[in-house]
């Protein structure tokens, strides 16, 4: 992406970062694309925060892990959300790192749940990322195929005549954000979500 600018992409794009000083979400729709990507994925403790304009930015997931507010604000039309961070915790982590990651996941899940309730996306796609690690960049084909299957199932369910009356899929039926049964055909992929390592 060297030299490319966000506003030059054929499809409008908005990346989000988190202001280190204020904790606020910062939307990036214009400017250097590579810089914006670096800022939006600058995981604290692993990657250095990135200066973008007047903001020092880190991973956007800290402020908005499922940035539906930004999508509604900048882009008209139906909203399709892809949630790759939904976790169903079956075991209690035993290590300090595992407990830290669990706490971070719970916080991000709550933020995503609140945005989902506010914005009510027409479709939520929840891929089964259980077999994919956070830094598993060397197996893109697996991730792509997983996402493709989830999207096809979600669209098929959403188009079914017995789907939810308003066409809105929540996927958050309790505080643990367990996705609905895939057989319920409510426009959401109800595949078992991943849980972090311990």
Short description:
The chain contains four helices and six strands. It is an alpha+beta fold.
Characteristics:
lipid degradation; 4 helices; two-stranded parallel ribbon; alpha+beta; 12% strand; 6 strands; PNPLA_dom
Write up this protein.
This protein has 198 residues and is of the alpha+beta class. The chain has a domain at 1-60. The chain has 4 helices and 6 strands. The longest helix is centred in the middle third of the chain and has 24 residues, at 96-119. The protein is globular, with a radius of gyration of 17 Å. It starts with 14 loop residues before the first strand and ends in a 39-residue tail after the last helix. Keywords: Hydrolase, Lipid degradation, Lipid metabolism. One of its GO terms (biological process) is lipid catabolic process. This is PNPLA domain-containing protein. Residues 154-198 are annotated as: Disordered.
Number of helices: 4
Overall SS class: alpha+beta
Poorly predicted parts? 165-198
Largest sheet report: 4 strands, antiparallel
Give me the secondary-structure topology.
Blueprint: E1 15-19, E2 25-28, H1 33-40, E3 50-52, E4 55-59, H2 68-74, E5 80-82, H3 96-119, E6 123-125, H4 140-159
